[in-house]
Amino acid sequence: MAEEAAQQAPLTINSQYVKDHSFENPHAPGIYGKMREESPQLNINVEVTPTHLQGSLYEVALRPEASAKIGEISAFQIDLHYAAVVTLADSLEEAVREQMLMIEVPRFLFPF
User: Fold this and answer.
1) Which tens digit of pLDDT belongs to each residue from 81-108?
2) Can you give the pTM of this predicted structure?
3) What's the Cα-to-Cα distance from 90 to each of 48, 57, 64, 66, 107, rounded to whole Å?
């Protein structure tokens, strides 16, 4: 029992924060009338960027972007940089460490 208590958790989320956020709606309110007549073309992208900070500390940044256009006219654009500082156990193998950074941490962070 004492050995289990002494083991380090494989993943600890230390903090979460918004690094940057942008919302653009350049053709409001006129674009809303066009959206009633024609469905916008949506584009959604999510980027995951892990960065080693020091020792067992890492930053994992999610960058979801979404935009909508009607023809060449922009309906809106959203850009968010949301990140977390995490601690990974020193005992993790490299393959497991990569899974934690690229899959598990983003899963905990999304949808924020």
Assistant:
1) 999 999 999 999 999 999 999 999 999 9
2) 0.80
3) 22, 10, 30, 36, 21
Whether residue 39 is contained in a domain is answered as: yes
Q: pLDDT tens digits for 60-76?
A: 999 999 999 999 999 99
Q: How far apart are the first and last CA of the chain?
A: 34
- The alpha carbon dihedral of 52, 88, 17, 77 has a sign of positive
The residue segments making up the domain with residue 45 are 15-109
Number of domains comprising the chain: 1
> What is the Cα gyration radius of the chain?
20
Q: Is residue 67 part of a domain?
A: yes
24 located within any domain: yes
